[in-house]
Every structure is written in structure tokens, then in C-alpha cells.
Amino acid sequence: MPKNSDHYYITTPIYYVNAAAHIGHAYTSIAADVMARFQRLCGKQVNFLTGTDEHGQKIARAADAKGVGPQTFVDEISQTFRDLHVALGASITDFIRTTEPRHIIGAQKFWEAAAAAGDIYKKTYEGLYCVGCEQFYIPKDLDAEGRCPIHLKVPELLQEENYFFRLSKYSDALKKHFDENPHFVFPQNRQKEMRQILEDGLEDISISRSVEKLSWGIPVPGDDTQVMYVWFDALTNYVTAIGYGARDDSHDAFTSPWWPADAHVMAKEINRFHALLWPAMLLSAKLALPEQVVAHGWLTVDGQKMSKSLGNVVNPYDVISKYGLDSFRFFLFREMPFGGDGDFSFTKLEARYRADLQNDLGNLLMRTIAMAIKFCDGKVPPTTPGTHEELWHKYSEHMNRWEFQPALEIIWDYVRALNQLIDREKPWTAAKEGRTADVERTLYTILEGLRQIAIAVSPFMPETSQKMLAQLGFDYFDPKFDNLIEWGLLKSGGTLIAESPLFPQLAE
């Protein structure tokens, strides 16, 4: 069956389990979750996939260093990534592991499809191999000291007989796709980088390793002396998770209501694999290409690259414990433009917490409900006409374009405007002067505005959204974008609830 138009399929990379999860993994998964929640708000059925990449030389060496078998090692680390997604409030619908039978079977069938297309061949190869990247480099791609540009280590010189994928065969097809799809890679500077690589020319890529050198991998179909190279194994998870290889019919017959994926989300260092190698693999296997590859930048910490030696690797659990999950999620996209590099700072986080969350939003809700309790017997006053449809359509446009910071700025402009309305209209003065209609008009305008704000922030701060709606007595909430743009859904006479502040004082 062809893909359903009301289906939205979004993925994170499957995270490599050679070490525990950190804030960089959290950033990617929360970004994907924000978009997944927004698409649900727009009425889409969402399949949100994440998982763990569990084969390769790095993992074999890490397990050996720990003195355990590789399966035991990956079982333990994979569970930490599952736990992290729960802690992050990520609304995932599937978690795939490359050691699962469904993936192994599908990856082998994908290999067979590429082989049937004449795109896999065997040859002896000598090259510079970076274990950290799990890829071969040519000298021009190394830095001035001959090191991998990502891990700053000199690659190992390897010589062995491997299988190769005819990546060069698809150069022209990929150029055509990039030309016809100018937003295939987000942001635009990443699209330009990939287009330049295409202009420089693609080379065929090694896609297997000798079992003598690496036994921890998926066996190559028909050749038990070789295992799949980690990227050719790992990338196929996006289709094995939705059923590729589960049936015995021909490769050409694979269809899914979820494929092609709407967005593959990842950090920029693996953009090349997703924007060039993966599309070429899909063309070889006669599958549709994903709609978009989203390659965000790196996070530094107080202006420095995260490093164990510097002791500045941020544990997301520590941030959540002190500041709360929603505050953490909010800060990542309020402070830093998504797509580019960003700097994580506890000082900046606390400043945003106090200014944007406590003073602007939290105080707006608390004092508005307090005034309604005092002047309107704790009930929602009579409905006042109004509209902000154009405002929320602009918000929607930003969200669909992965422009999270401008979308949040629209919300906070509105929050500030409502705070200014209180200061300007002074409901306490109007009540003292007996201008009941003015009090009710002002308070309804703010309360209904808060209802819309609660829906608009829900992709970023789902718990905060629910708390706001509960205090507004909006227990008949139907989470659809239509309810964001429609004015007046907060029913007159509804009971308002005063609770503790949304964002409490931070512990010293």
C-alpha cells in the first residue's frame, strides 16, 4: 500500500552503545519528540522510532575492555537508552535494536536486494580506518596531522578483502534529487555541504569486514567469512522497523503506510551517511527516498566542547533533577537556534527559567487565576470575542520548518502581551470602581489566551501544558491544532483551580 497522507514517520539515529547516553543524545531525541508531538497536534498518526546500534569494532573493544561478552555489554547499555527516553518524556512508538531478529533478517534481505541490483562486489582494499567513526578515510579528508577530524586520532592502516557498495553509481541520481528537492537536508548549509561532496565525486564504499578481524556483526548473506560494515547494517533499521524483510515476497513488493520517512533527525557528524549513502542504498534496493534529513549542530558547554578529560560532559538526569524536565526541554530550543551549533550553560538556563518561565508564564497564570477567584468567584467569566488565528498559523509554519526558536518567540511575545494587558487594564482598579464588564472582558481574554498558549507549548513542555489546562478547568481538551486557532473554547462558568506555581523557586 502507498504511504498514508495522515501518517508521519520520524526517526532519531539508532544510538551507538559503546558508552552511556549524554546530553547530545538527549538533544536529538527531544528535538524529534517536539516535532512528533506537533504533528500529532495537527491530527497526524505518528510513528516515532529510536533505538540502539549494537554492532561494530568499537563495541567489541569496549565489551572486551570491560571483561564481558558483547551481547551482555549491549544489553546493559541499550537499556540505559530506553530509560533515558522515558526520563526525557519522549513519545516514542518503537525502539529497535540491531541485535533483534527482525532487524538482522531485514538487513540481510536489504543486502540481497542491493546485490541483485549489481551494486555489491568484492575486492582487496587497503585504507585508513577510524574505529571511532567506523569508516575508512582518504588522506585529503584528514587534518594537517593526519588525524580523523572528528576524533582527532590517527586512523589505523587496514588491508583486507571486503565487499564494496557501488556508491559512485548513484552520483548523478543523487545530484538530480538534490536539485529537485532543495530542502532535502535541513538546514540549508548542510544541504550545500552534501551537494559539494557530490560535485567532488563519490567513491565506492567498503560495507563488510572480515570475521577474522571483527566477529561482532551481522553475517553477510552467503559468505560466513564476512560481517556487514556497521553503517550498511545500521541504516537499514529505518525500514526493518516497519516490516522490511518480514515477508517472503520479492524485494520490489515492499510497501508500508509509513514509508518513506518524513524526517530522519541526527547530529551533523552523521549527515553524510544519511544524506548520501542511505539514499543511494535505497535507490539500489528500489525503495523511495526519505522526505527530509535533519542534521542539527553540536552542543558545547560554556563555550567548550564536551570532553571527559575536561569533566564537562552534562548528564541529562542531573539537569532534569534540578530544573525539571519541561524547563530543560524548553531551554534547549528557546536559547539555541535549532540546526546550528549551540552552547549549553547552566547560567543561561537559570536565567531563562527565572525570566521566561517563572516571571513571564508562571506568574501570568497564577495572578490571572487569583484575580478570577477574587473578582469572578473562581469561574471563567463570560466569553469575549477575539481571534489569533493568523498568529498561530505563523507558529505552525515555523514548526513545520524546524524553526523552533522563532515558534517559541511567537508564544512568548503573546505571553508578554497578556502580562502587559493586565498592567494596562488594571482589573483590580476596574473592580474597585464597579466596572464589572471591563474586569470580565480582560480576564476572559487572558484566560482564553492562556488556554491557547498551553496548547502551543505542548510539543515543548507537555507536562506544563497539562498543568495549565487543568488549572483552567479545560478538562474537555481535544489535542488538535484546530483548537489552538479557534477562539472562545474556554467555556464561561467553568471552575478555575489555584495550585502551586508552575515553576517553583530553584534550590540553592
Q: How would you describe this structure to a colleague?
A:
It is a single chain. This protein has 508 residues and is of the alpha/beta class. It folds into two domains: 7-297, HUPs (Rossmann fold); 346-485, Orthogonal Bundle (Isoleucyl-tRNA Synthetase, Domain 1). The chain has helices at residues 23-41, 57-66, 70-87, 101-116, 171-180, 188-200, 230-234, 237-240, 271-284, 316-323, 325-334, 346-375, 389-400, 404-425, 427-432, 436-456, 462-471, 481-485; strands at 7-16, 45-53, 94-97, 120-130, 135-137, 156-165, 185-186, 205-206, 208-210, 219-220, 223-228, 263-267, 293-296, 299-301, 304-305, 342-344. The strands form four sheets. It has a six-stranded parallel beta sheet with strand order 3-2-1-12-13-7, with helices on both faces. The protein has a four-stranded antiparallel beta sheet with strand order 5-4-6-8, with helices on one face. Strand 4 and strand 5 form a beta hairpin. Helix 11 packs across helix 12. The termini are far apart.
